[in-house]
Amino acid sequence: MAEEEISKQLQDQVNRLQQIRTQLQMIMQQRQQVEIRLKEVDDALEELDKADAKTPIYKSVGSILLKTKGKNEVIKELNSNKETLNLRKSTLEKQEGRTKEKVSELESKVKNALNLSPANT
Fold this sequence. Notes:
- The protein has helices at about 1-50, 70-115, and strands at about 60, 65.
- It has about 120 residues and is mostly helical.
- It has one domain (about 1-120): Orthogonal Bundle (Helix Hairpins).
- Strands 1-2 form a two-stranded antiparallel ribbon.
């Protein structure tokens, strides 16, 4: 009976470990997507820096391009987006760190439980 409880408890821990690993993968993918978007914003800002004041600038809205009122307007918008993306990236990095700690902790518990299980003695 105690053996069944241990194996059920161990199985629950293994299932939880798998759920947390899946969660970690999703967080890492989200962080990578944010980093890609940040790179795109940086590239756009760099190109805007090269453009002179008379260069017409367009922005994508859905599936169309609209001419903007000016370079400064687009730069303000991109800087705002960049700030938001940096905040999101920071949040995801913290979440990723906490989730990695949970994975390590659970992996350790599962390994200890496997080493202590009667089947291994």
